Amino acid sequence: MSQKTDELAVRRSIVVRCTPEHAFHVYTERMNDWYPLEGHSLFDDPNGTVHWERHVGGRVYERSPSGEEGV
């Protein structure tokens, strides 16, 4: 028996008036300014922080106010 699966994708884009380097910096280094941890936190705590490790193979992780980390 075979199953058919249709892939669904949502694509969205915006144009920002800045250099790609600046946009990447804001997206990665200032994620706490724009990412809504309330309702999306791994620890159900909107007071945590999100971090990007800026090297190949680096992690994106959340740190809770008590110091717990989750990838």
Structural class: alpha+beta
Sketch the topology as an H/E string, one letter per element. Answer: HHEEE
The average pLDDT value, as a whole number, equals 88
Strand order of the largest sheet: 1-2-3
Shape: extended
Query: How many angstroms does the end-to-end distance come to?
Result: 37 Å
Question: Number of DSSP helices?
Answer: 2
Instruction: State the helical fraction.
Output: 10-25%
Query: Rounded to an integer, what's the Rg over CA atoms?
Result: 17 Å
* Beta strands, count: 3
Low-confidence runs of at least 5 consecutive residues: none
Strand content: 5-15%
State the major sheet. Answer: 3 strands, antiparallel
Oligomer, anyone? Answer: single chain
Question: How would you characterize this protein structure?
Answer:
The termini are far apart. The chain has helices at residues 20-29, 31-34, and strands spanning 49-52, 60-63, 69-70. The protein is of the alpha+beta class and 71 residues long. The mean pLDDT is 88. The chain has a domain at 37-71. It contains two helices and three strands.
Give keywords.
alpha+beta, 71 residues, 3-stranded antiparallel sheet, 14% strand
Which secondary structure elements does this structure contain, and how are they paired or packed?
Elements: H1 20-29, H2 31-34, E1 49-52, E2 60-63, E3 69-70
Antiparallel strand pairs: 1-2, 2-3
